[in-house]
Structure formats: C-alpha cells, structure tokens
Amino acid sequence: GIYLDEGTSQVVVSNNVVYNTGWASFFQHYGANNTIINNVFARASLNPPPQPGDDNPDGDIHIGLAESHTSLTFTRNIIY
Q1: pTM, to two decimals
Q2: 74 vs 43, higher pLDDT
Q3: Nearest partner of 41 among 65, 15, 5, 66, judged by Cα
Q4: What are residue 34's DSSP bridge partners?
Q5: pLDDT of 58-69, one tens digit each?
C-alpha cells in the first residue's frame, strides 16, 4: 500500500490503483497538509492488526490518531 510515515507532510498522492495489499491500502501516520486525491484503494486484507482508536477496521484505509499536527484532504477516491 501507500504509507506516509510519521511527520510526512506536504505530499500529494494521486491517480494510483492500490489493489490486494496485505493490510492497509493507504496509511497515514501523523503528518500534515497531505492531499489524497483520485485514487482507487481495493481489496486490502480484512484482518488488519489492531490499532488504537480504530473501532471499525476495514483493512483499506488507516489514518493515525487525530492530533493538532495531523491533517489531510481525502477527496474523489474509491474505496472498495
């Protein structure tokens, strides 16, 4: 998948097809001002490892805990 690690900021992730990953198709771990646009995230594993604060894991998208230094724009993406 696509993994924006701790503190990754000012990144544009666009026009990707992410398919059949072992866990999250997209994962943001903190970071600020990232833009995720026009992507397809499909068929990730439905058995992700447990994550704090994620009461409904679906395996496709994981956004780290929201804090004052965490932000992203997530538009026109398909999650299947």
Answers
A1: 0.77
A2: 74
A3: 15
A4: 72
A5: 557 777 666 666
